[in-house]
Amino acid sequence: MLSVATINVSQENSMESVRATMERQTARRTRTDVTQMIESLFFSVKLAKDLSARCKGRALQLTDDEMQNIAQDLENALQNIYDDLGRIPASAFASNAYMDVLIKSQSMRGYSEADIPMNVTGSRPRRPFRDYDTPKLADFLQGMYHESHEYGGQIFNTLPEVAEYIEPVYDAFFCPLTNEIMTDPVTIQSGVTCDRRAIQEYIEKFPDSSEPFCCPVTKMPMQSKTVMSNASLKSVIEEWTMRNEAMRVRIARTALSLSTADTMVLEALHELKLLAKLRGKNRELMHKIGVTKFLARLLDNHSAQIQCDALELLCLLAEDEEGRDIIGKTKAIARTIKLLSSNTSVERHAAISFLLELSKSHLLLENIGSTPGIILILTTMKINNSDDPIASEKAGAVLKNLEKCTKNIKYMAESGYLEPLQSHLVDGSEETQMEMVSFLSELVQEQELTIDITRSTSEILIKMAHSCNPMFRKAAFDVLVQLSLHRPNSKMLVDVGAVPVMIEELFIRKVDDEPVNSMASAATVLANIVESGIDPDTTMVNKEGHVLTSKYSIYNFVHMLKCFMPDDLNLSIIRVLLALTELPKPLATVVSVIRENHRGHAIVELMSSPMEALSLAATRLLITLSPHIGHTIAERLCKTQGQPRKLVKSISHAGRITERQAAMAMLLAKLPYRNTSLNVALVREGAMPAILSAIKEVQNAAARSSRHAVLYMEGLVGALVRLTATLYSQEVLKVAMDHNLALVLTELLSGPAGSDEVQRLAAVGLENLSFLSIKLSQPPPDELLSKKNNILKLLKDSKAHRNKKSSHQQNVCLVHRGVCSPASTFCLLEAGAVEGLLGCLENDNVRVVEAALGALCTLLDERVDVEKSVAALSELDAARRVLSALRQHRQNVLWQKCFCVVEKLLEHGDDRCVREVTGDRVLPTALVSAFHRGDASTKQAAESILRRLHKMPDYSATYVSMEF
């Protein structure tokens, strides 16, 4: 390929030639109806000025910013008209007619002759276009879309045509080979000017230097392939290009602000996008004349296409830092949020692309992140990758840029996107780590978020908690306290070695100038970890091999319980002990340590703490320990001054039932029943009336609505039953008689609030009371014996007088062989409890059935008239119910009690009762099964009945030997 030589021609000579050509071409393009054009221009400008003045005057009185926007648009339109008119070619002023009209129009409007621009040969400089009037550009631009709308005989179809009309292009700018405006004009030997690229392609067609070639335009032969750069023309073209593009920007801006047609707005946006891509000066001009601000308004347009085009143009304008800063001062970011949630992928992609460009600016990061809802939408978009992979990828890129502002990391965490916070916490500087920990603490404390932490995050937090920096330690402990509440986090903390650190904080670490809050926090973290379900038998607490269930650990936990320690520390230690006592081995260790070191008094004292959570936890621990050291706890309660009174007061019902009330009542129900000291102390403090009053309140529907009502009721009934275990105390016996305790328990067998446990406890209480009936029953007067010889009348009288409390009428009980009443002798027949106890035999809960049978067996004791008792039971269909219970349940204790009742029915029952028992088909099978698999007592009871049924030989019979 031949090289092409380039020779620069003289700037001065070329400019003169180009200028002459431009003058001739401009003269041909100038309108002939000059008078009409000038009059129209000045008239339109006058109207625009008046409208602008009126809009500004009214805008000052309005709160809506729409009027101010209109006024600004008019100002911008006037500026465009002035600038455009100022670009009319100078040669047009050479016309005398043009000058006459101009002078006349200017003088009519107050302009002096000095304000009139001169032609290119004059000495007066050309003034800015804003000093002249022009046709109203709104009508000018809108009219070009209608074929019948002409301006001076000129019809426009596109916005570039309007720009070319105002800023005409010269023929000399066009390359004769490509018919396009030249970018690098060069002159060849024939004198023709072409674009460098076009002429080079033509010359390359003649590679042989000996081969002649002709000028592509004039066809004249040329001897040289050398081309000369036409720098002057190139400079003029560049100048014209700049003016033309600036004019196109202004025209498009005017079209945006004044047009109501979507098609024109779309064309203006398309024109602006092309110009924005060409050079940075066009983008600068767009910012300057208000295009950027207007684009933000277009994001609320009804047309989706306009919204997308506006976003694309905003993306182009946001490519430089200055443009992003200008966009950030508009409402574009806030208006983009709704487009992110659009159902159309095109709108979503345009919106996310725009935000991606903006997020590259450090100055806008906080502005973007603080916009309400934007980070939540971005995180949702990123997480839902399958819905829109493209949008998800770009959303991730935006979030990655937003991470550079620490506040945005917090916003992301609030939206559920925790990866940035945790990554900065792990890899950031000390200052960043401190800030991230503060964010994390704020999130988990104030907003109570459930956060799953990674292993690396857990390691950093443990490291910070173990450091010597007090600020780091406090921040880390605050976070760990909340994070450890989530069970997966607790197991993660165990894996990274959190337990030894917490144990060291509790047992070993002692810093004189550091507050004890870190110890309390460590105890709370440890309590959360132990309650999460880990295996305490394998959880190491130090390098010596001790585990959580070791005596070393439990001993230290128990000895940390002191009344003068902070309540939150005591609470956490008790929580640890409660969690450990759920397992048999650590429970035995806890009991052993407390018994050996007499530490039960501290737990009893903490039960009276004003902190409800601590009091509740201490009460629960005492309930857990009561089966093992119940008497010790009871004695400590009695010896603690005012404690029985506090117990009685705490179980009294006042308003809605609390968990603490239920726990206190349950403690009384779980402590050993036969502790006379505690029972007498409770009676002296008025426990009986307080408990009965509370039971009546619970039986109301309003009280039962509490979720603690069942537990509370069971505790109250248990407290009543514990009093029946020490009736040998005269004080307890008297209060039981005074409050008719047998009748109270009878009602609880089938009361409205009677759960299975309540029924069981009531049956146990009735059994305890019934044991005293034979002792308390007094021999009747002789005159009443004849009236009470019928057992059926006894049953009728007992029903008729069940609820009567008259002390003047005496009822003779043939079972107890004396005068009985529910209040004075606790007689089950007089109290009507037998029917309720028999009803309990149909319960599915074996413990309820067992307790009911225990109470019924007291009526078959050898000290009472068993025959009369069996007759009374037979009348109430006792045989069928007992056999049904025997058929349903197969426990040793239950078998033994059932067989006791059955044997008495067979021995003392009438013929009907015996037939009913012997006719049961299941009884023999149950007896054989009990004989095979029962314990010694059960086997003996079954054998006795089988012998009575002639199923086994009676070895006790006496045989007489006779000799024949």
UniProtKB/TrEMBL annotation:
<protein>
    <recommendedName>
        <fullName>RING-type E3 ubiquitin transferase</fullName>
        <ecNumber>2.3.2.27</ecNumber>
    </recommendedName>
</protein>
<dbReference type="Pfam" id="PF00514">
    <property type="entry name" value="Arm"/>
</dbReference>
<dbReference type="InterPro" id="IPR000225">
    <property type="entry name" value="Armadillo"/>
</dbReference>
<dbReference type="InterPro" id="IPR003613">
    <property type="entry name" value="Ubox_domain"/>
</dbReference>
<dbReference type="GO" id="GO:0061630">
    <property type="term" value="F:ubiquitin protein ligase activity"/>
</dbReference>
<comment type="pathway">
    <text>Protein modification; protein ubiquitination.</text>
</comment>
<dbReference type="GO" id="GO:0016567">
    <property type="term" value="P:protein ubiquitination"/>
</dbReference>
<dbReference type="InterPro" id="IPR011989">
    <property type="entry name" value="ARM-like"/>
</dbReference>
<feature type="domain" description="U-box">
    <location>
        <begin position="168"/>
        <end position="247"/>
    </location>
</feature>
<dbReference type="InterPro" id="IPR016024">
    <property type="entry name" value="ARM-type_fold"/>
</dbReference>
<dbReference type="InterPro" id="IPR052608">
    <property type="entry name" value="U-box_domain_protein"/>
</dbReference>
<dbReference type="InterPro" id="IPR013083">
    <property type="entry name" value="Znf_RING/FYVE/PHD"/>
</dbReference>
<dbReference type="Pfam" id="PF04564">
    <property type="entry name" value="U-box"/>
</dbReference>
<keyword id="KW-0808">Transferase</keyword>
